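Format notes (please read before filing issues)

Several people have asked whether sequences and structure tokens are stored in separate files. They are not. Every record keeps both together, in the order shown below: the sequence lines, then the token lines. Line labels are part of the format and must not be stripped during preprocessing.
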Amino acid sequence: MALDFIKTVLKKFTEDERMNKRGFFTTFFKTTPEDYTDGEYVEIDIERTGDYVAPALKDARTGSVVVDEDIFTEKRFKPPYSALSTPVPLIDLLQRQPGESDTAEVRGQWFGRLVNKLTKSLSKFHRMFKEQIELQCAQILQTGVVTLKDAAGNDVYTLDYKAKATHLVTNTNSWDAAGADPLGDLESICDAVNDDGKATPSIAIFGAEAWQNFITNSDVKDMVRRDGMNLGALNPGLLNKGGRYMGYIDVGSYRLELWVYNDSYKRMDGSTVYKFLDTKKVIITTALEDLDFRIVFAGVPTLGMKEPFASVIPSEVTYDGFMRAHNRVFEDATQDTYTAESKMRALAIPVSIDRFACLTAVHS
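Then the structure lines:
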């Protein structure tokens, strides 16, 4: 019975479909075993992929040419802290739960009820952490900057990866105005990615408003192809992750998969619904295999899980190589309360910083 109970608890984490399916933008990022650390900081090289040509020497005796370290820079980052908790007063465990009978035998199963409540809270925290990671990835691909808020809506963490201005552009003519040139705009921004990133752009992700104006443009609507839906050539990692594949188009010398992403989130400081992707923007990236985007995890200060919970609730949970959360349960004897707490320190890092770009396509 004890073993069955433990298996049931573990399934709440490992078989949670909402956790095992990473977000659309998170799919562009990866986490390797080396990206999990126990330190305060993480160190990683941000790559500028420009095609610098090695100069020749007039005379071998003059010595080597010094290369500015800014071309290849090792960066030291401090991932943000996140911690969520929910108290469970023991008095709540005496009340009938949904689907249960109100008998003394059921009311007496307080420990099982307690563990069930605690694991439900921890699973919810993990889903909230997942949404934060998706938000970080979305912010990077649109602005090159990660900005996280506290529960009151105040900015408490900002990290600017210094994406090039030529990769974060607003077109001259808005796509909903006369003179719009969406094909020319896409080709220009693809050129920037191709020239600076030294990899071929192949994916375009549209916000809803940008897509509507793109697909109704007279120069575009007859060029988008859906023959066979190009499924054989798709980046398979993007399928069933929340984005919708709309076809493909040839723009200049580039063939772009066309995706629309319209997922949303809420912040704890209100009920406003926000879009992960600004509806007026378009993101361009190279193929997934050409990207080096990481999600790294730093050490978390925690006292860990204590008995009797250590035997049934995992103190650390890793999901499909994209998230790690630390759990603990602690008591307040004066209040007859147990508290479920989960912590995470995750940071999305665009190592290949020049292999994406973002266009503000609608702005009139």
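For reference, the curators noted about this record: The CA atoms of residues 164 and 354 lie 8 Å apart. The longest strand covers residues 323-332.
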